[in-house]
Amino acid sequence: MNGLNKGIRKVEVSLKWDPSPTGQPPTDLDIVAATYPAADPSGDPAYVVHFDSRSPDGTITLNRDSKNGQGFGWDEMMTVELNRLDGRYGRVVIGVAIQQGSGTKTFAGVQNPGLRIREGYTVLAEDDFGTVLGSTAATVAAFVRDTSGEWTFHPGITGYDEDPATFARVMGRPPRA
């Protein structure tokens, strides 16, 4: 990288899906962000941001939360201001969890899911969860701070078979085989 490159600074993570068919329980997907200390980037998260929460320093905010996928366009949105994140943090993992209130639901049972991650108007990643249809949750991206302090984007969808609370604790680790 040259001296003019600022790395990834601020991203928006957006999630959408269609409401459940009539007579079916509502489908509720949630964006989850876990922040990890630079000293232990794959250990336990320092904190987790999900529905009804934001980061202690205000750098990660859930701007929109849907409980059923109703609405036009993107149902959930999270803003992650990496450029403002304290230097003691070295990794942020973004995931999506399906609430399991009415029985086990996987991505195969979600109507038209979509994910978009962008910085400004630049789309960094888009996905439909087609590679993790049998999973109840998935990590969708990681942002890692390099030795110069710049953040880099690491895309990739990895499925997990965990309830939302367990997923939030283990999403920074490789999934169990």
Question: What's the structural blueprint in terms of helices and strands?
Answer:
Blueprint (H helix, E strand, L loop, with lengths): L9 E9 L10 E9 L9 E3 L10 E5 L11 E6 L7 E10 L12 E9 L2 E6 L9 E9 L5 E10 L3 H7 L7
Antiparallel strand pairs: 1-5, 1-7, 2-3, 2-6, 4-5, 6-9, 7-8, 9-10
What does this structure look like?
The protein has 177 residues and is mainly β. The model has no long low-confidence stretch (mean pLDDT 92). The protein has one helix and ten strands.
Range of helix content: under 10%
The gyration radius over C-alpha positions equals 16 Å
pLDDT < 50 runs, ≥5 residues = none
Average pLDDT, rounded to a whole number, is 92
Brief overview:
The protein has one helix and ten strands, in the order ββββββββββα.
Key terms:
mainly beta, five-stranded antiparallel sheet, 177 residues
